[in-house]
Specification:
Order of helices and strands: EEEEHEHEHEHHHHHEHEH
Largest sheet: 9 strands, mixed
Number of strands: 9
Number of domains: 1
Low-confidence stretches: 1-13, 140-148
Mean pLDDT: 91
Number of helices: 10
Shape: globular
Strand content: 15-25%
Radius of gyration: 18 Å
Helix content: 25-40%
Structural class: alpha/beta
Distance between the termini: 33 Å
Strand order of the largest sheet: 1-2-3-5-4-6-7-8-9
C-alpha cells in the first residue's frame, strides 16, 4: 500500500491518496477526515469517478472517515479490459472495505455505485452498517422491466464514440468543462443550466480519465445484474429514486418499494423533478443531501 497526504478543504480535514489492490488491479482511493472515525464509502457511476462526491465531503468529514473509490477503468485506478463486470466492480468495493475501513461502512453509491452498494448489502452485509442507493439500476442491464426509453443508453453510445476522440486531443479539463456547459443534457436543457458547476468539472475530469470500454458490456447487453431481485438487504438501505417521468432516469420506484418492503429498516425516497444525476442537479442536490444526511444520522443514532 502506498499513501501520500496533503492538506485540503474542509478545514481540519486531510485527504490521503491511497493505492490498494484487488487482485492484479490497482485502485485509487481518496480518504478524508479522521482515520479513526466511522467510515463512509462513496461509489460513483459507470462513466464517473470519485471526484463526483467532492461537494459532500465537507458535510461528512467532520464526523466520518470518507473514502472515495475510483472503480477499475475510472479516474486514477488501473484499466482492466476484461474485468468490467458486476463481480469486478463489487470486488473493488469489497477490497476497500476489507483493506481500509477497519469496521463496517456506510456505503453511498450513484447508479452503478448504487447497485454495488445494494449488492454488498445483500451478499456481504457484515461489511456494512447501511447503504444508500442513488437512482440505481434495479433490474437486468440497467433498465426498468418493459421500459422503452433509451435516453441513457443513447447517451452512453454517444460517449463510447466521442470519449476516445476527446482524450486523443489532449484537451484540458477546464476547456472540456466549458464545452459541456453548453451541451444538452437528457432533458434537453444545457448541462450549465441544470447542473452545479462543480458537477460539470467532475464530469469533464471523469471523461478524460475513463476507459470508454467500460460502456461496452452495458451497450452490448452482456453486463448482467448486480442485485438479486428475491434477496433482502441485510442492513438498513435507502433507495433514492429520480423522477420516473424524467428522461434517462433508471430506478423504478415500484421495484425499489418491493426491495424496501422485504428489508427491515429500509426506505424509498423519490425526488420529484430530478433526473439521473440527482446529486449534481441544481434543483435536487439539496433534497438529496437532506435525505442522505437524515438517513445516516438515523443509522448512527440507532446504533448508540
Amino acid at each position: 500500500m502506498w499513501v501520500r497526504c496533503h492538506v485540503v478543504a474542509p478545514p481540519r480535514s486531510t485527504v490521503a491518496v491511497v493505492k490498494i489492490r484487488n487482485g492484479t488491479v490497482e485502485l485509487h482511493v481518496a480518504s478524508d477526515g479522521d482515520p479513526a472515525a466511522p467510515p463512509i464509502l462513496l461509489l460513483h457511476g459507470i462513466t464517473s469517478h470519485g471526484r463526483t462526491w467532492d461537494w459532500i465531503v465537507p458535510d461528512l468529514a467532520e464526523r466520518f472517515r470518507v473514502l472515495r473509490l475510483d472503480f477499475r477503468g475510472h479516474g486514477l485506478s488501473d484499466r482492466a479490459p476484461d474485468g468490467y463486470t458486476p463481480e469486478g466492480y463489487l470486488g473493488d468495493a469489497v477490497a476497500v472495505c476489507e483493506q481500509l475501513a477497519g469496521q463496517p461502512c456506510i456505503v453511498i453509491g450513484h447508479s452503478l455505485g448504487g447497485a454495488v452498494a445494494g449488492a454488498m448489502a445483500q451478499r456481504r452485509p457484515e461489511l456494512l452498517r447501511s447503504a444508500v442507493m442513488e437512482d440505481p439500476p434495479l433490474g437486468v442491464a440497467g433498465n426498468r422491466p418493459g421500459r422503452t426509453d433509451r435516453t441513457l443508453l443513447d447517451s452512453f453510445a454517444m460517449m463510447r464514440r466521442s470519449v476516445p476522440r476527446i482524450q486523443g486531443t489532449g484537451m484540458a479539463e477546464g476547456a472540456l468543462a466549458e464545452l459541456l456547459m453548453v451541451a444538452p443534457g437528457p432533458s434537453g436543457a444545457s448541462f450549465g443550466a441544470s447542473l452545479h458547476p462543480d458537477g460539470i468539472v467532475a464530469m469533464a475530469g471523469s471523461m478524460l480519465a475513463v476507459d470508454a470500454a467500460v460502456l461496452d458490456p452495458i451497450l452490448e447487453g452482456t453486463f448482467g445484474r448486480l442485485l438479486d431481485p428475491d434477496a433482502p438487504f441485510g442492513v438498513p438501505t435507502l433507495i433514492v429514486c429520480a423522477d420516473p417521468e424524467v428522461p434517462g432516469t433508471v430506478a423504478d420506484p415500484e421495484v425499489a418499494g418491493r426491495f424496501s418492503d422485504s428489508s427491515p429498516g429500509s426506505a424509498v425516497v423519490v425526488i420529484d423533478g430530478a433526473g439521473h444525476l440527482i446529486h449534481d442537479e441544481k434543483a435536487s442536490r439539496d433534497r438529496f443531501r437532506e435525505a442522505v444526511v437524515s438517513f445516516v444520522d438515523g443509522v448512527v443514532a440507532s446504533a448508540r
